[in-house]
Amino acid sequence: MFQALPRISRRRALQGSAAALVLFGLLLWWLLPMGESSPSGRVTVSTGVRNAVYEHYGKLLKTAISRDMPDVDVELINSQGSQQNVERVATGKADFTIAAADAVEKYRLEGAPGADRLRGCARLYDDYVQLVVPRSSDVDSVEQLRDLRVAVGQDRSGVRLIADRVLEAAGLDPAKDVKPVAAGIDTMPELLKKDKIDAFFWSGGLPTDSVRELSEEMPVRLVKLGGLVNELHKQGGASRYYRAATMPADAYPSAQQGSAVPTLAVANLLVTTDRIDPELTEGLTRSVIDSRDHIGAQVHAAQLVDLRTALYTDPLTLHEGARRYYRSVKP
């Protein structure tokens, strides 16, 4: 006769079944492609003037986002520059943008619509203020622009904001002491070549292709601006974001002829609002940092995006999604 097997209690049988189910579930999770949730939908990014750094950077970032978040459809829209960019994002006309810190602070200080909802994703690269004149010009300082035709950027651009403040720091009234021309970097070089202006202000990453190309087509030079920092800081408000900087001698070799140029710089920020989903913002911030080298190969200024400083988005607090990203990569 066979020996009878010991009876297993009902309770132990249930426990064994539960354990088997858990093990089976874990095995399925491991073996089957469950598909992680990924951000989806449509986002609008406000860039800048055609052929300028913001537009070029935006196009390359769109490619990076499409690669990293394939279910996100990115629409790029041109703008006059930082001031319009900030207004668009704050009022919900765009989801993300690049804007200079001084333009962001100006919008906040004015208490403009949606200012309290603005958030930062990353500090990107610095804009350098560039005052370009023909090499034969007698202008060696901002003060000498008096009564001259000066392109100062479009009305809602960051260039216009900086140009007005630099002129004021030099003791000039932007509306009365110069002949201001509202033009962007897409038209400034041609205006200078055709002798329709005597000088133009530009604020952008180094090098800006339009300025480089101009310097290779006609003899131009860059006027020194670094000595105006103290006067700018006395203006208070958003002017505190300007700092002394030096354009390296190889930024525009044809224009600089081996000489570095003392000037001013201001940080650019990737800006959004607290309306935007944290998961989407985390993914987009990751794309910005991860694509630095690829974008930097074509937009040299982007090479300066640095994970160690990217989270310092003063005057804006970090968006929660961006904060999650920086925590995830913290050593």
Can you summarize this structure?
The chain has 13 helices and ten strands. With 331 residues, the protein is an alpha/beta fold.
Order of helices and strands: HEHEHEHEEHEHEHEHEHEHHHH
Got a strand count?
10
Instruction: List the total number of helices.
Output: 13
The backbone outline, from C-alpha atoms, is globular
Percentage of residues in DSSP E strands: 15-25%
Secondary structure: helix percent: 25-40%
- Which sheet architecture does the biggest sheet show? 10 strands, mixed
Measured distance between first and last alpha carbons: 68 Å
Q: Which structural category fits the helices and strands?
A: alpha/beta
Radius of gyration, in Å, reads 27 Å
Task: Output mean pLDDT.
Answer: 90
Taking pLDDT < 50 over at least 5 consecutive residues as the criterion, the unreliable ranges are 1-5, 25-35
Keywords:
single chain, 331 residues, alpha/beta, 13 helices, 10 strands, disordered N terminus
General description of the model:
The chain is built from 13 helices and ten strands. By secondary structure, it is of the alpha/beta class. Strands 1, 2, 3, 4, 5, 6, 7, 8, 9 and 10 form a ten-stranded mixed β-sheet that branches. Helix 2 links the parallel strand 1 and strand 2. It is globular, with a radius of gyration of 27 Å. It starts with 9 loop residues before the first helix and ends with a helix.
